[in-house]
Amino acid sequence: MVGVDADVDAPNLYLLLGDFMEIQSEEELYESKKAFIEFDRCTRCMKCLEACQNGAITRDLRIIPELCDGCPACAFACPEGAIKFKITYSGKIIVGSTKYGKLVMAKLALGERGSGSLVESVRNIGRRLAFDEGASAILVDAAAGTGCSTISSITGASYAVIVAEPTPTSLYEINRVIDLLKHFKIKSFGVINKAGINKGVEDEIVNVFDKEGIELLGRVPYDPLVLEAVSHMVPIVDYSPKSASSLAIKRIYDKLGEVTGLW
Ligand code: SF4
Ligand code: SF4
Q1: Residue 19's pLDDT is what?
Q2: Which of 34, 79, 233, 245 could be bridged to 19 by S-S, CB 3.0 to 4.6 A?
Q3: Structural domain boundaries enclosing 9
Q4: Could you tell me which of 185, 257, 183, 173 has the C-alpha nearest to residue 218?
Q5: 65 lines ligand 1 (CB under 6 A)
């Protein structure tokens, strides 16, 4: 199996898979758009400064690259056509080898934000790697939420596993995620993480899964040992193999293999 960390804004899968990742390849990405001003055309009317919602333009008309996301409101506002764009370095995609298998992830440059196209690049490299390795499956850790990066994370997926926590926020989010997965016609399964912390909300989440025909693969009980394992950078299933959370994760893994036929 090949792992793909598609949560490009906060990649952390490599931390959960042990503290050592041997880097096999790095690919630099140049896909960020940054504004700059052609001062021979600029009349210093300051319309661009008013238009920029990111505060990326200073009063002396410097554009701070780390704050500019290339939106391009300033260029629309500029009556002189003095604002242009250049493509800049946005980060790199890393393919690494961990104790548990190959992993693809992105490392963004300072001030850069994840985008759907970056996630797509990470996913495509993961797909190539899986093909080369003859892997039976690609496991994608999707970006949270329902935005562009999440949509890009689930594009082409055969199955999705919705991991919900018994909190009101998670209950609200899963309804949106389910709508998204239904839209893309992706067969979905459910998992409850930190089960037991709020029985009422947990029951509501299970009802949502039931109503939507989403099979619940299992519940991972709230377990302080998980935090301890994370702080030691060891997966809980290795850190404490007999703990209730480890046993639940193993059961869920087996069940997922059984219902999908992937392992
Ligand atoms: S492109 Fe957008 S973020 Fe960048 S300076 Fe112009 S208005 Fe601001
Ligand atoms: S809007 Fe155009 S002309 Fe006006 S200050 Fe900005 S770059 Fe210069």
Answers
A1: 62
A2: 233
A3: 2-29+91-260
A4: 257
A5: no
Give 143-170 pLDDT, tens digit per residue: 888 888 889 889 999 999 999 999 999 9
Task: Please list every protein residue whose CB sits less than 6 Å from any atom of ligand 2.
Answer: 37, 42-48, 61, 77-78, 80, 82-83
Q: Give 108 Cα–ligand 1 centroid separation in angstroms.
A: 19
Question: Domain end: 43, 60, 88, which one?
Answer: 88
Q: Check residue 158 and report its DSSP letter.
A: S
- Which residue CA neighbors atom 8 of ligand 1 most closely? 52
pLDDT value at position 119? 87
CB-based contact 149:8 (threshold 8 Å):
yes
Cα-to-centroid distance, 54 and ligand 2 (Å): 16
Ligand located closest to 41 CA: 2
In angstroms, what is the span from residue 34 Cα to ligand 2's centroid? 16
Strand 2-5 with 138-141, pairing: parallel
The mean-pLDDT minimum among 15-29, 62-76, 177-191, 230-244 falls in 15-29
Are both 171 and 48 inside the same structural domain? no
- 57 and 167 housed in the same domain: no
Residues 15 and 58 in one domain: no
Residues 220, 95: one domain? Answer: yes
Using one digit for the tens of pLDDT, what is the confidence trace for 89-139? 988 999 999 888 899 998 888 878 777 778 888 999 999 999 999 998 999
Same domain, 145 and 84: no
Q: What is the strand order of the sheet 215-221 is part of?
A: 159-164, 187-195, 215-221
Which residue, judged by its Cα, is nearest atom 6 of ligand 1? 74
Examine the domain organization and report whether 23 and 45 are in the same domain.
no
Are residue 212 and residue 104 in the same domain, yes or no?
Answer: yes
Q: Do 42 and 122 belong together in one domain? A: no
